[in-house]
Amino acid sequence: MPYGSRLAAMMTRRIGRECVYTPSARLALYLALRRWCRPGGRVLMSPVNDDVILFVVLAAGLRPVQAPVSQWDGNIDPAAVPESTWRNVDAVLTTNLYGLPDRVVQLGRRCDQLGIPLIEDAAHAIGTHVDGQPIGTFGKAAAFSLSKHVAAMAGGFLAVEDARTRRELELLRDDLLTPRRLRDDLATTLRPLARSTVRTLHLVRPVWRTMQRLGLLERDAFRMALHAPRLAGSARHAPSLAAYEPWVRVDLHGFRSRHGALVRGQLELRMTLLEGDLARRRAGVSLLSGTTWSTPALRDRLTHDGPPSLFRVPLLVNDRDALADRLVDHGIVTGYIYDPPLDDYAGAEFAEPSPAPEAARWFASHTLPADPLTARRIAAALTKEGATPAHPPLSAHLPAADPTTTPPTPLGH
């Protein structure tokens, strides 16, 4: 029986596609890029994305091409991508940022016209649908993350169209897995419990501040250190996951460790609780979407489809960096801030710059990702801190705004 087949079957039943179990979404994404993209190819992607994803693309021997994005959700704006760019890309990688869906119908149509694969990064988007169809079923393949939705801090899937492709990818995955170690399995199992205990005992602030002072955090800023000379040297070995492992492993050192029965059993249990988790997320999204900091893209989606089960709710605020630091004093650590955009962060040596970078820069610098599972605490803290909503400058370089209504007032006002 293939490794992780019981977990894969659970996900297959959920989305209706053949699934490969992987220790992480980043390994799943690497498998997809290796399967559908030839080394040297160019991949269109959003610059508002985790830096780990940039390094996964580089590890696959590919050139990341940064796309213009919507100023309201940070996802690719297909209409703003120049024709010259469309003619020179070999694949499109979505983000579904924070769970807000990419424009997958338009992107899929364009990919079909060009004869190139659409690969969905659905790490934030378990439970997200477009026109009733699950995200992760629009492209050739989709990478999912369990750690984003069931607090497991491990586990992922690669969803594909047919059983034959699944079997091919299982063999490729097995070649990339590192041997299981009991110590790592115990750490993977206990880590979520430790994090939950810290939150329950209201120790987030002292623990976080102590880790900052002791230099125990892998990132000194929102982005990890680039180490450009060493990164450039790794290109000689691409495609090679091992050559890029110092970057790809950040925040998840066991991203390709073979999980034993202990970890997989815990993940199976957590997956049975997924529907309850998604319902709680929808409730939190509903609350936060009614605040003055909510992005119009979310309010528009709420009007048409009801509250989505987002991984994070993108709130648009002024003085975001200072505000995020002050929220630690309220016991709220804000993660998943993708600033600066990848082309500004990595430079032209490692990523082709966006032809229209202004929207990405604005969105990345004003977005405060809020956990919908703690929506009331976050809304109360932002109100107490006097957080003010951010509005993009009027500029011909920014894509047109989505239709919106007048923003509601903050919670409690």
UniProtKB/TrEMBL annotation:
Keywords annotated in UniProt: Aminotransferase, Pyridoxal phosphate, Transferase
Q: Which family does it belong to?
A: Belongs to the DegT/DnrJ/EryC1 family. L-glutamine:2-deoxy-scyllo-inosose/scyllo-inosose aminotransferase subfamily.
- Tell me, what's a Pfam family for it? DegT_DnrJ_EryC1
What are the required cofactors? pyridoxal 5'-phosphate
Could you confirm whether the keyword Transferase appears in this record? yes
Report whether Transferase shows up as a keyword of the record: yes
Lineage, top-rank taxon, reads: Bacteria
UniProt GO MF annotations: transaminase activity
PANTHER family xref list: DTDP-4-AMINO-4,6-DIDEOXYGALACTOSE TRANSAMINASE, TRANSAMINASE
Disordered: annotated span: 387-413
Q: What is this protein called?
A: DegT/DnrJ/EryC1/StrS family aminotransferase
The record's annotation in InterPro entries points to: DegT/StrS_aminotransferase, PyrdxlP-dep_Trfase, PyrdxlP-dep_Trfase_major
Renumbered to this chain, the Low complexity biased-composition regions fall at 387-404
